[in-house]
Amino acid sequence: MKTKGEIEAAISEAIVHFEIDYMGRGPKEARSHIVEDLILVRLKGMLTPAEQQLAKTPEGVELIKKMRSTIIDNAKAEFSRVITNATGVAVRDILTDISTASGERIFVFILDRNLGKELPRRISP
């Protein structure tokens, strides 16, 4: 059985690959955390250069958020499959938002059971 850290790393890697496949580029940094029945994913450096320019106006911010939200809505089944493959646990819902100020995106995957208490932790020597 994989450890919690190994699964978190696999989730981060899978989300980065998804971003590259769908957006043409991935984040500069990705971290995932399993907390009970939630998986939190924080992606840094998400905005493309074009989005950085758009984010300078309120209309551009709205456009970025709408486009990114639509992409995620259209790919929820794929995201769920990626998380289920990495964890063995079904996804009940996905919540997300992107900050055009910091260029960070947060995903919250709500699982159908408490994965956090089931996983072994790596024991330090």
Describe the protein in words.
- The chain is α+β, with helices and mostly antiparallel strands and 125 residues long.
- 44% of the residues lie in helices and 23% in strands.
- It has a four-stranded antiparallel beta sheet with strand order 1-2-4-3.
- Helix 1 packs antiparallel against helix 4 (76-87).
- It is elongated and about 45 Å long.
- The two termini are 19 Å apart.
- The model has no long low-confidence stretch (mean pLDDT 91).
Short characterization:
The protein has 125 residues and is α+β, with helices and mostly antiparallel strands. It has helices spanning 4-23, 49-54, 58-74, 76-87; strands spanning 29-35, 38-44, 91-98, 105-111. It has one domain (4-111).
